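Service request form, structural biology core

Requester: graduate student, group of Dr. S.
Request type: structure prediction, single chain
Budget code: on file
Notes: please return the result as structure tokens.

Sequence provided:
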Amino acid sequence: MVLGALLAELRDLDLAEDAFADAVATALERWPADGVPRRPGAWLLTAARRKALDRLRRRATRLDKQHALELEAELTAHEQEPVEPEDIPDERLRLIFTCCHPALAQPAQVALTLRTLGGLSTAEIARAFLVDESAMARRLVRAKAKLREAGVAYRVPELESLPERREAVLAVLYLIFNEGYAASAGDALVRRELAAEAIRLGRVLAELMPGDAEVRGLLALMLLHDARRDARVDASGAGVPLEEQDRTRWDHAQIAEGRSLAAALGPPEASGPYALQAGIAAHHVAAASFAAIDWRAIAALYGHLLRLQPSPVIELNRAVAIALADGPESGLALLDAPELAESLVSYPPYLMARADLLRRAGRGREAVEAFRAALASAATAPERAYLERRLRELAR
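Core staff response, request fulfilled:
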């Protein structure tokens, strides 16, 4: 959040990133010798402001001098009142709206905001967009260059301008939550700090836009998924699928809140994508057991979602719901359709879903091969532990 606070003051993304990098480099030099300061965030912010001032003074001959002087005066004023980033919790949502600038296409808005303010790496953003890391890096560079060339200033939009940025802001919160709910790499399946921050921002946004069904739908969706977090990993650290989760470990107060929000969102035919996903999540947690889940209703909701947002990932989820409603072979027929299989050939959830349906269909040899392929592509330790368990079971 130091970078976000800098961006709010500087309104220049490149300058904010450069100053922050300079401050971090200084910290790496000084902290080992001097010790970590009592308030490291405030230390970094103060150091970054000074680094920004240095850069502004060096660039003054090349920049518009009046602009440089204005920024220097503002930074000097801020220097007198060091701020701990955690003291301004709602600033982050304002900055997300600021970064989702309509000068960029929405995918670029979302990607740049996730990189700058969302706490996600370029690799994590690339996985969210189903592209390779180098392509995403180029996309981010182009987005920053476009904003710079257009002379876009990073200012908080007026209240009446928020609706035009709402869709991108929702996508940012959703992808931050997704990376927290199911990490795309690393030793942990759940990154609680990201999920919690996305939910917190969702609550603030719901208060800001109380009549917006999609905002409430996203909040409901996040609450319903997050309510299951404690049951999603076992004592050994392996991932636990929904079918095997201990429902007594779910947060039932959070489920009640999420279901209440979802129930008030209206009929599927008139719902947006987040409201539809909230309805799907509500079905998952409303049933007394996995066997009692209404998979046909879920498949129908995915059908509505697919019409709104054609996507191979939604096709994958719909195929799994159909398999659980009508039998694994019906789902496999959809997953093995050439276009879908080609688009998701290296997507770990697709490989895991296909392996599981082969297991359910009793096609043991093919299931083993599919689980091995999924294991080779798994990016998190809990996923690998789960897949290894399935392979041991199939070897018996």
